[in-house]
Amino acid sequence: MYKKLEKIVISHLMIILFWGLLFKNKMLVKEGPILNAVSLILVFTLYGLIYTEISNKKIPQRFSVLVIFSSLLPLGLILINDLPYKLAFFLISLISTSLFIKRYIILDNVKYINILPISRKSTQIFTIGLVFFIFVVIYLFDIDTVMINIFIQIIFLITEFFFILFLKEKELAFEKTFKLYYLSDYMASERDEFAMIIHDDIIQDIFASKNYLSSKNPDIEYSKKILTSLEKKARNIMKFYQSSLFEKANLETSLSAIFDNVSSLYPNKNIKITKLIYSDLTEDKKLIRLISIISKELINNVYKHSDAKYLSYELYKKGNLVYIEMESDGASLVDFNKIRESKRGVLLLNLLIDSNSGNISYGLNKDILTTKVSLEVERDENYFVR
């Protein structure tokens, strides 16, 4: 949300600096009523734009930018001393601001907005006190009209700046809470999924084997066959969920094990695998573990959520970044939207990647899904032997 207000604050700062240049070059209007009117209208215009932007999260970006030029720019130009048609500039600003606010403001949300990060009662007290202070300063120091209006604009600019910082801190705190909530939800869903695997793939086979052995004419050989298959299946499940496997092997071995373990969980899917690994990270166990966990999630998503016939995996380093690039077919637009809107598995990936100053992006071309992950590593040539 705070990013939507940055352009307004920057525009306000530019207007103040522009007025300063006009004053320095003796091009600023000298009429006090015009200065006071434009300064007051600018404050109310900024208030209106800020409240509208905050109340409505669905304002198109192009209109947010357009209103800056059509509302604030004319107000900034009006104070040029020799500028003709000042009234026309004022009307352009007024009409543009009014149309924007009328079209996009959500009045039900306005009552929850306060530009000062304090209570409404405290805001009222602060405003009254500030107005009184300004009048006292004007009287005692005999400040002229230009300086007092610039002073008021600077105070309002500082208020906007602190409001943005306040919003930024609140949004970061909310984002962390949001991620932690969905991370805990993801862990709960993983436990449920693991319980379903135990029930469907292990308990059912044990129950079947028990019935064969408990019959009057037990089929021992068939029971052995079921139990042998069960042992193999249980080992594959154990390897898939046992993350400590990543700690003792080098990167290439870990990735090979991941492909084997994931594919073994989906015996009915025959996906042609292509691997290009240009890096040797045997000296960095922490990074090997991170790459392995991320790769396992990405590879499992391809097996689990698509009808892929091939999967291309590439790992390489460029500068101080390690890149993972994957490409697979069999994806649909529905699958692609699920990936972008996922709040579980993909969120876990984002948490891991963000914690390492990385980035993940997805692309869809017909049924070809591409994934690119970048991870920041230290600038140390010993990371890579090749």
TrEMBL record:
Locate the transmembrane regions by residue number. 5-22, 34-51, 63-81, 87-105, 125-141, 147-167
Q: What keywords would UniProt list here?
A: Kinase, Membrane, Transferase, Transmembrane, Transmembrane helix
Asked whether the keyword Calcium is assigned, the reply is no
One GO term in the molecular function aspect is: kinase activity
Entry protein name: Histidine kinase
Organism listed in the record: Anaerococcus porci
